[in-house]
User: Fold this.
Amino acid sequence: MATLIIAEHDNQSLKAVNLNLVNAASRIGGEVHLLVAGYGCQVVADSASKITGVGKVLLADSAVYEHQLAENMSQLIVDLAKDYSHLVAPATTMGKNIMPRVAALLDVAQISDVIRVDSDDTFARPIYAGNAIATVKSLDRIKVMTVRGSSFDGAAEQDLSVVIEVVDSVYDAGISNLIAEQVVQSERPELTAANVIVSGGRGMGNGENFSMLDEVADKLGAAVGASRAAVDAGFVPNDMQVGQTGKIVAPDLYIAVGISGAIQHLAGMKDSKVIVAINKDEEAPIFQVADYGLVTDLFVALPDLADKL
Amino acid sequence: MKILVTVKRTIDANTKIRVMSDNSNVDLNNVKMALNPFCEIAVEEAVRMKEKGDASEVLVVSIGDKACQEQIRTALALGADRGIHVETEASIEPLNVAKILAKVVAEEQVSLVILGKQSIDADNNQTGQMLAALTNMPQGTFASEIQIHGDKVQVSREVDSGLQTVELAMPAVITTDLRLNEPRYASLPNIMKAKRKPLVMTTPAELGVDIKQHTQLLKVEAPAERQAGVKVASVAELIEKLKHEAKVI
Ligand SMILES: Cc1cc2nc3c(=O)[nH]c(=O)nc-3n(C[C@H](O)[C@H](O)[C@H](O)COP(=O)(O)OP(=O)(O)OC[C@H]3O[C@@H](n4cnc5c(N)ncnc54)[C@H](O)[C@@H]3O)c2cc1C
Assistant:
């Protein structure tokens, strides 16, 4: 029994979510290996080799894997699958894109969004926007799954590094190409890795007003998130959306500002340790999950908050 | 160019479901059902392609029990031309769904398949990718914009880091994200017209697909409930609580 984790990275750095996955994989039992597939990504493999609990790193470094296109990546992973009982990726857009393709090629199911590992074949996952938790047993010989990083603590890193094995297979399906990329640059911590998140909703009124959230976020070293309504209205880019169909977060502190608390939004943040809601409507459903609620106009509260912090 | 759109009957997005007392599953008795929102966006996109002249026919398929014909009719009322109902029990695993769809794709020789990225019941986000794998088609998942250029299709994808545009050789599979379009409402005349549009029925067996069980549902539980906390009177009190009571800042 051994688990292969498909690493989340951007060819330059290894994302924090991999640490959570190593921890999840160690609960399955058996060896844990990490696949770093990309282009010019030796540095990523180097950091991967220092995660406590990882037995070996596989490095597939080729231009065909630069953008982790599902058509090419899935072939590579299927090729490596014979040595593994479990293939695991984070439930990020990378993992969600690639892993079902891998599963179908192997003629096995995928178990999506695992939040708890009960044994090597039994896992828990949220369904219906997190309003129910299903415990599912896999009947397949190879278990393919995506795992929610926010549900597991991160593994530690150490000075000692394990062996990095080079994988030479180069698969180019030749049916897809990346032609443009708009990566949102931010000085702030990533949403899924942040300890504190300040999120704005439709109540923010427009994009400029998000600078008021920025000021609070600066004081707290926080990431800034948003509801779907704020993204749909064009206030902020899509990568900031928290919820059932956006990012799933579980920070120590989540401050929801001008967000009503629709089930789809709650699905993405209700596992936060402490929730604060600032909303002028005292009936807003967000108050039902908030540890601290402040019923007030956000345009008054935010400058005050930035000032007093 | 023929487009295949898939539709699933799911709970209405505004309903909150309850878990059954024996923890065997969620309780769907008397729950309002609807067309999965992501499928609705898929239908809308295909219909717009036809209206623009990019597509000649929009075919819609649903897999499930008899009740899902209602969702096929909804799609026909929104502008799809023809429906296929593959009759199975209400819900089957994504891999089985993908296998059925692969057969339909082969029979109908479609150039593009548009699916919702996930259904809001099982939240799996798998079927499109699996279909692409089984038919060896490229995939453009989580689409927020689609443009046809000859025999290629460009898809802007919503990814965690921002946006990414891929170019796929058709035939191709696309899954929709929320911002791809805003679906129209079906007009009454179109709802009437949809009743006369062709809808054929088939079964997995007729298509040559053997439904296999890959997972077993052991139990379904309600998530841990969060208790509502307290209301604070001012920003100063909030900061004080966060510092000294919750100790998170
Ligand atoms: C299939 C599907 C998937 C979805 N996925 C997601 C998702 O991933 N994430 C997500 O967030 N949503 C998602 N949604 C949308 C969700 O249902 C809600 O529509 C959305 O979350 C609402 O965003 P909001 O709270 O910002 O806006 P609203 O519901 O409009 O709430 C705005 C709030 O701001 C308050 N407000 C206004 N002005 C002020 C002021 N001056 N001071 C203080 N408070 C003020 C109001 O009282 C109100 O409570 C999804 C919906 C569907 C159907």
About this structure: Chain A has a mean pLDDT of 97. Chain A touches chain B through 90 residues (CB under 8 Å). Chain A is about 25% helix and 25% strand.
